[in-house]
């Protein structure tokens, strides 16, 4: 695929803001005749390329290496060495080292059903977190104007919110807080039927959940699945004598959710392996 018109630095800013997986390729050293100079950069995603390292076979090999790391979910840095006449099949005769930095993007998706008072506060409070948020409501004009400018946020006005459940990625964290009890129950039913949600929370009272639980059990959902539904949510704020304002309930709901969201694993060794870096920067690449 040819490079997109957007510059690498504009694409890098946008992709990081949106939480899209991507890789930054930087030419860090060169010797002899090479298409570009050290410091040249390009950004690579699964289906697009922004800017160029000069074209040719070695650039396509860089793109392939970046996309393989993206597909494997291997975040972090690696150093690729190219002999322009050997591995790359080019005739420049020079040597190039390219640093690949792979960013996994947002690894957590939060699905919020309902754009009422609590839903709005939830989405607003979640904005600084590195999550992708998918916000659904069946009502027309339910979303506030500020939602259109939020990074990693997608608003979906859908006549049947249960149909949107099928579009969610595996491992989604879901919060159900619509304006309608029947819609809430249909959504919980559909989310439980998926069987792959990371967590599921429902707004409401204990009596509401007791009624839902009986009907969901009669619909065929087992005790283990039903036990995984958190209802009420935001109990730290909305308990007896607590603050029941939308902001407080939203804040408490996110506090309950945070321990359930897994952080990407990080090993003790970060960055490039020192021995490999030293070898690649001091030894002549293989022809």
Automatic annotation (TrEMBL):
Any one Pfam family match given in the protein's UniProt record, by short name: XdhC_C
Domain of life: Bacteria
Residue ranges, compositional bias (Basic and acidic residues): 263-287
Region (Disordered): 262-287
A GO molecular-function annotation: oxidoreductase activity, acting on the CH-OH group of donors, NAD or NADP as acceptor
Domain XdhC- CoxI: 16-76
Domain XdhC Rossmann: 110-257
PANTHER family linked to this entry: ALDEHYDE OXIDOREDUCTASE MOLYBDENUM COFACTOR ASSEMBLY PROTEIN, XANTHINE DEHYDROGENASE SUBUNIT A-RELATED
Name of the featured protein: Xanthine dehydrogenase accessory factor
Source organism: Halomonas fontilapidosi
Phylogenetic lineage: Bacteria, Pseudomonadati, Pseudomonadota, Gammaproteobacteria, Oceanospirillales
